[in-house]
Write a structure and sequence with these properties.
The complex is a heterodimer of chains A (129) and B (152).
Chain A lengths: L7 H4 L3 H5 L4 E2 L3 E5 L3 E7 L3 E11 L2 E8 L8 E5 L5 E7 L10 E5 L2 E7 L13
Parallel strand pairs in A: 1-7
Antiparallel strand pairs in A: 2-3, 3-9, 4-5, 5-7, 8-9
Chain B lengths: L7 H22 L8 H5 L6 E5 L3 E7 L8 E6 L2 E8 L9 E5 L4 E8 L10 E5 L2 E7 L15
Antiparallel strand pairs in B: 1-2, 2-8, 3-4, 4-6, 7-8
Classes of the chains: A mainly beta (129), B alpha+beta (152).
C-alpha cells in the first residue's frame, strides 16, 4: 500500500477540540447485548455524517456529534422544548469487546454502534471425540 | 419483550385522551364533538418541538431521529397542523437483552393549532438528519408594515 488517501484528515483537528467550550447535551441511548455483540443506539437528531466522531481511548468510547448551525438565528422564539448544544457521551467498554472490529452507522440522526465480542468468549459447542 | 422506558409524557397523553373520551358524549349532544384522529388515539409518544418566527414565516422544528422519511406524515386541516408516524425498533437488536432503554418507540403524534394569517397552501416541510422542519409562511396582510409619516 503506497497510496495515501485523505491527506487532509491528518491536519484536521478533532471534533472534540472544536466543540469543547460549547454547550453540550447527553444523547439518549439504548444498550443491548446478544450472543455475538453489544449494541449502542443513540439519538442524535441534527447531526450529519461529516460532523460525527467516535473516539476510542483506554477502553473508553466517546461519541461526539456536532449539530449543524441553525439558519434561524434572527427568529424570535415562541416555544422551546428541545435542548441546545452538541452531543457528547462516554462509555467504558467491557473487556469482552473486540475493539478493532467496532462498526458504526448514522442514519436519520440515529447512531448505531455494533461492538462485537471477542471470539474466545462467544458460546460454542465442543465436539466430543 | 423489550423494556420500554417510562415516559411521563405518555402518561399525560393517556390522561388527556381519557378525559376527552369521558366528555365526548356530552360534547356530541351539543354538537361540539371533535372527530378524533386515529393517529392521536394510538400514539405512544410525542416528539419535542421548537417554534420560532420572524416577519415572514413560522418554523416548527421537531426531533424525530431514527425514522425514515416515508414514516413521517405532516398534514394540515381546519387550522391544525399535525405530525404523525411510527418509529420502529431496529432489527439488529430484536432478540437482544437490554441494559438500558432511554429512547421511545412506537407511534407518535403531535399537533399544533396554527394562528390566523398564514399561507395554508404554501406550508413546506423538510426532513434531514432526524429533524423535521416545517416552514409556515405568513400571509402578506399579517406581516408588519412600515408606515411612512410625512411631516409637513
Amino acid at each position: 500500500m503506497t497510496e495515501v488517501k485523505n491527506n487532509s484528515s491528518v491536519d484536521k483537528k478533532s471534533l472534540i477540540d472544536e466543540i469543547i467550550n460549547q454547550p453540550y447535551r447527553i444523547p439518549v441511548v439504548n444498550i443491548a447485548e446478544d450472543e455475538n455483540s453489544f449494541f449502542i443506539v443513540a439519538d442524535m437528531p441534527g447531526v450529519s455524517k461529516d460532523n460525527i466522531e467516535l473516539k476510542l481511548e483506554n477502553s473508553e468510547l466517546t461519541i461526539i456529534g456536532k449539530v449543524d448551525s441553525d439558519r434561524n438565528n434572527s427568529h424570535k422564539l415562541i416555544l422551546k422544548e428541545k435542548r441546545n448544544g452538541n452531543y457528547i457521551r462516554k462509555f467504558r467498554l467491557s473487556d469482552l469487546i473486540n475493539q478493532s472490529q467496532i462498526e458504526a452507522k448514522l442514519e436519520n440522526g440515529q447512531l448505531t454502534i455494533i461492538l462485537p465480542k471477542k471470539e474466545s468468549i462467544k458460546p460454542r459447542s465442543i465436539e466430543i471425540a | 419483550m423489550a423494556l420500554i422506558k417510562w415516559n411521563p409524557s405518555r402518561e399525560l397523553l393517556r390522561v388527556e385522551r381519557d378525559l376527552n373520551r369521558l366528555f365526548k358524549p356530552f360534547w356530541d349532544k351539543f354538537g361540539m364533538g371533535k372527530t378524533t384522529d386515529e393517529n392521536y388515539e394510538l400514539a405512544s409518544w410525542a416528539p419535542l418541538a421548537d417554534i420560532v418566527e420572524n416577519n415572514n414565516e413560522y418554523l416548527v422544528k421537531l426531533d424525530i431521529p431514527g425514522v425514515d422519511k416515508k414514516d413521517v406524515k405532516v398534514s394540515y386541516s381546519n387550522g391544525v397542523l399535525s405530525v404523525s408516524g411510527e418509529r420502529k425498533e431496529e432489527k439488529e437488536s430484536k432478540d437482544a437483552n437490554y441494559y438500558r432503554c432511554e429512547r421511545s418507540y412506537g407511534k407518535y403524534y403531535r399537533s399544533f393549532t396554527l394562528p390566523e394569517g398564514i399561507k395554508e397552501d404554501k406550508i413546506d416541510a423538510e426532513f434531514k438528519n432526524g429533524t423535521l422542519t416545517i416552514v409556515i409562511p405568513k400571509a402578506e396582510e399579517s406581516k408588519p408594515k412600515q408606515i411612512d409619516i410625512k411631516v409637513n
